[in-house]
Amino acid sequence: MKTISIMNFVRQCEPRNKEAEQKLYPTTKAQLEVVNELGVENTFLLQYDALCDEKYVKLFKENASEKTELGLWFEVVRPMTEAVGIEYQSKQGWDWDWNIRPGFLMSYSLEDREKLIDEAMRKFKEVFGYYPKSVASWLIDTHSINYLCSHYDISALGDCRDQVNTDAYTLVGGYFNQAYYPSKTNMHTPAQSEENSVKVPMFRLLGSCPIHNYDGKKYLEKEWKNLWCYTMESVWCGRYEDVTDWFYKTYYANEDLGFSYMQIGQENSMISFLPLAEPLKMNIQKILEYPDVKIMKMCDIGDAFKQKYDKTPTTSVVALDNWSGSDCQSAIYDTQKFSVNLFRHNSKISLRFLYLFDDRVEDIYNNSTCETHDARYENQPVIDSLIWDDKSENVGMYLDLDGAPFDCQKIGESGLKFSWKDKSVEFGEKEIVCENLTKILFNTGKAKARIEIKENVIEYLYNGFNYELKVE
Fold first, then answer.
1. CA contacts within 13 A on the Cβ side of 251
2. Which ranges of 254-337 does DSSP label H, i.e. alpha helix?
3. Do residues 268 and 27 make contact, with C-beta atoms less than 8 angstroms apart?
4. C-alpha distances in Å from residue 312, one per residue of 15, 175, 176, 241, 360
């Protein structure tokens, strides 16, 4: 199942840009014209303020074909809070504010979150005559997801890629891309049991680079330093034809263990950087060259995922070369239990990260409001070369300091084996098997977890929970 969603997000205001009123609507109109011209399935997610603006409503009612799905982009704006009698506490006095407080649900009480969800859904139905099937946000808390999915018939959820303190929110150690069934206790964690599962898949947005999304500019060649984000967004990697080719090859030609997904498209408020319709058209034309990749509405991908999987699947994103020029390879392997990254830079081969998914770790905003600038979601770190970085080259778990480029081989239904010289690492759903490794160097750097390394086990204490990595 190889899928891609063309999904654009629609805001009605952008207070940081003086030309927003003149540019936002034409940008959305141009994006809609592109998907209509190419005749492809697509999704537009409308923010509440766009639902309140007649010109956006008229645009979609008169020009969207049956191939366009309309869904909800959920950030909190002043008209929404005023509709339910809640104060919108923007320090800048804006009607839309990108800060967690007041722009995202976790900065409101549990009762107010439910009021805001009900109002957004009510308004959408008032405008279009039905409730949306797809709902996404850069960040949405677990309580809100549970409420949304238990009260409305939702097919697909979406949230931001992993990132550290970008746009006032941090997500680390999550299921890298593709989709998973969130835990009822923590939306950033794949559920570990049927009874604790939200039965609506969560899709990671933006189409992230498996090499550079984790470390940012660390392994980037100088000519690419103008990029801030390493995603398929139209203003970032998705603006370049050769980089787009690399992303598609990596996601759809390399091993994915039976399911691959990417989102292309852009929020209309990124008008400060460059026009958005031209790179979107190029992205679509190039994916049309992959006949085995199905372009689908977001709601349809969600429904297809639910039909195919009854629990979070094991998937992979494998980059055997690098679009930016530096000598890197990266293979990310996601299971219901953990996410791990095999990484090679020059001759050093390491596990760059390994995160454990644990239902016991609860969303800290389930019973309290977020009152800080940076809302944070994370999973349990076993290896974390980014957050634990102490400026040493060797933070992480190094398997070979004199390695060669590795190749990739599928093992059984859900295993991957990576081989170089006479050495190999095999990822399975329950274990990692290494062959012919003479020494493993584990540099914990400035670890946030308490770690004790013993003869055949590494013991951890983090977030108040104990866990361990056994070595046989």
1. 29
2. 277-287, 298-308
3. yes
4. 39, 10, 12, 33, 17
